[in-house]
Each structure stands twice: as C-alpha cells, then as structure tokens.
Predict the 3D structure of the following.
Amino acid sequence: MTGRRQTGATAPYAATQAASRGRRYPEPEHPYRSVFQRDRDRIIHSTAFRRLVYKTQVFVNHEGDHYRTRLTHSLEVAQIGRTVARELGLDELLVEAICLAHDLGHTPFGHAGQHALNQCMLTFGGFEHNLQSLRVVDELEERYAAFPGLNLTFESREGILKHCSKRHARELGELGERFLQRRQPGLEAQLANIADEIAYNNHDVDDGLRAGLLTEDELAVTELFGDHYARNCAQNVNISRRALRSETVRAMINEIVTDLIDHSRATLVAEAPADIEAVRAHSAPLIGLSPRAGKRHRALKEFLHGSLYRHERVLAMTARAQVIVQGLFECYMNDIHAMPKDHAQRAEVWTGESGDAGRARAVADYVAGMTDRYAYSAYGRLVEKISMNQAHDRNGDEDAG
Ligand code: MG
C-alpha cells in the first residue's frame, strides 16, 4: 500500500507517504487513510479550525454575513490548491491539509490583532502568526493521550511554516533548516503558499466592492481587474452589478490559476526534479506564475494594500482591534486568574519555568486563540469590571473620608 496510489499523486516529484519524513511521535499507519489524509482530517476536527469561522480576514466578523472569514478563506485556498495539485500530479490531500491549516495561528481581528499582539510580546520573544499556526498543531491542540498537538507529518508542518525568522529557525531543528540554508519546501507547500495569495487578492476585491470600500472604476486602473471587467461589461450588457462583479472575479482567478498551472508545469518539465528531495535542494521555488501574470497579480496586490487595507473604515477597525488586544493582554499579564483555569494553570507553570516570558507566552496563546466576538465580549467584561472597581474605590474613599 503506497501513499501515492491512495492519494492520487502521480508525479515523481510529489510528496509520498513512502518518502515522508514522518511524524514527531511515531504512530502506526492507518488501515485505509494515507498519512496526509489523516493530517487533513486532524486539522478539520481541531478546535482551532472551528474557531476560524469567527475570525476576521479583512472585515470584522460581525460587520456582515456575506464577507469572507478565515474559515471560508481557508476553504477557498484549499479549493484553488487542490485544482492545481490535480493538474500537476501532486498530492491533493497534503495540499489541502496545508491550506486548511495555514491560518490556524491567526489572532482575532486579522493583521491588526497580530500587529498588536506582537507589540505586546516584543520583549518576550515576539508573536508571528505563521509560527503560531505551527504552535497550534504542534503544541496547543489537546486531543490525544500519547502526544501534544496533532502530531502532523513533517510535510504538512513544513508547509504551514511559510516564513520564519533566523532566530526561530535555529530553535526549530530540522523544520527550520531550510530558512538557514535557503532551500525550498516540497511542491505541495509551495503551491499552498501561492494559492493563499491568489485567494485573498481576488476575494478582497469581491468583499471590498461589496462593502463599498472600492469601486469598479478605481479597481479598473489595475490591468488584471480592468481587462476582465471591460470584457465582461461589453459581453453582458443586461446583467446585475452583482453578477458582473462575480463574473469578473471568476475570470481573474481563472486567468491566474491557469497561468500558475501552465508555467509551473513548464518549469517542472525543464528542471525535472527526480523527487521531493531534489525539489527541496533547489535554490528557487518551482511553483509560480509567469512573469506577465506575476506582474498583473502583484499590481493588484499593491493596489489593495494602498486602497483597501488603508481605507479609513478598515483603519478605524484596526485601531479598535489594537485597543482590545492590548487591553486583554495587559489585564491577563497582571492577573492570570482572569483567564480560564487551564490557561491560568499553564501560565503559572510557565512563569515558574521562565519568568515573565513564560507568563507572556501563555497569555499570548490564550489571546491569539480568541475569535473576534469572544475578544469583544471578554474586553467588554473587562472594561465593566475595571469601571466597577474604580467606582468601588471611589465609594471606599468617600466612606473613608
Ligand atoms: Mg491566508
């Protein structure tokens, strides 16, 4: 029984069960599921995965029911990833596992939350959402008697860890080596990385238009949107604005995904890596867009950075998110027992082991795991408690006076 036959990977350079570098804690094989299928299944059944439904992508979760959340984003990334994997003969289930897990370490309130938590953690080793995703699957999920985390394969873990500082890479052993030696991860990991970019670029266009933060005319300055929008306007005179938007975004994704397949296939034919180890030894990724499509894709990305992510409504949300995340962090640092019991206990143990840095890490893990709405209500309770205490102190002063 080979992983390759089970999962449909057909190319010699695909990840295979037989060539897997294995799990941190050895486990017997499953009678009918491949190792990568099990990784995918473990991720879907994890608590952190379920929480993604209430975490922000760009818009705060409660702003509207039609916007992407981290869960729907992750599903869309997996859909794009699997489509390309199938065309290139890669392991679809491994790609899916990486795509579904890639955002597990995200804080509430998207990048605003991550930035705020990193600020809080600067003197305690910092906070990187990518590293946190790995921490979730390696350490924080509590589901098995025999080991912490989900005990995923090396291949899934190398895909989840997209980037990493040199300092952290040194601490990660085998998994961190490629960041120090400038080697590549397997093709499935390379693919998941770019599928993420394709998904958010195009879907942020869709959500940005829907929210009224962008207009079609503004977006038309980018070639990728402008070309498909103009063609769709000419071909579909009597359709609704909503359908036109959807047709345009679909055509954009189709152009980029088709280019990704064609260009990567040509690169793989030219380079002909013999197996996954040969892929890893390459100095540059082998999965990627052609220069022309890459340029169109990046121009859109830059446009979104300048227009959507810096829109005043998004920035207002960002500022509020930072106040909440910082407020929660400070509160729990001052009083670990304001956290649920298991988190408080962990903070106690880690404080004993490594002082303030240990306590801060336990607090950061707790805050990072929160959904947007949980963080909102936790902060609300906190503010209420503080103002009640202040009122109590004032009354006390008056009584004493
Ligand atoms: Mg993502």
